[in-house]
Amino acid sequence: DAGVIQSPRHEVTEMGQEVTLRCKPISGHNSLFWYRQTMMRGLELLIYFNNNVPIDDSGMPEDRFSAKMPNASFSTLKIQPSEPRDSAVYFCAISAGGNTGELFFGEGSRLTVL
Amino acid sequence: RKEVEQDPGPFNVPEGATVAFNCTYSNSASQSFFWYRQDCRKEPKLLMSVYSSGNEDGRFTAQLNRASQYISLLIRDSKLSDSATYLCVVNRGFQKLVFGTGTRLLVSP
What we know:
Number of helices of chain B: 0
Oligomer: heterodimer
Structural class of chain B: mainly beta
Order of helices and strands of chain A: EEEEEEEEEEE
Order of helices and strands of chain B: EEEEEEEEEEE
Radius of gyration of chain B: 13 Å
Structural class of chain A: mainly beta
Strand content of chain B: over 45%
Number of helices of chain A: 0
Number of strands of chain B: 11
Radius of gyration of chain A: 13 Å
Distance between the termini of chain B: 37 Å
Largest sheet of chain A: 7 strands, mixed
Number of strands of chain A: 11
């Protein structure tokens, strides 16, 4: 596997709390993607970065969501304040390069907001 | 209407059966197409790309019909290990992949 490490793997929090999800590609990649997966809506692209710059954040649901990529090996997705409808699995992925369409996903962070 | 539509299933088939999944997409400007596989509580992984000429990888055959905006996946001689959710994926360009909600396959002994 290309190696994308996400943390935490599981998080249970209460409504109103701040949540920070982390992504570390093992080797630096130019493009990094944050997806959210729910039963009802499937996998939705939230935001993607190219060379650490956010290119398209049109999928970010609202201002409560923010994402940063301070360097090629680290990214965060923050939700503040969290709401029960944010409960989902959040995946970070990196591109295999070119226009292959292959993304390597991390194992995901399963978030439950009570 | 969703940009990528799939029958959610589940498709329940016995080992050895042939099963086909279909998918339609609405954006005619979509550039490339893929099938991903996702096991329960795991991350999605690329299964295969889909070309207009059709392509085969072992027991798996994928086909694209651009005129009808339709993508298919055929699995021959199903194995228990094929049980998973199969995601139809469309590349809008600039690596922006749009995923269908998936079709669940259950292969039983």
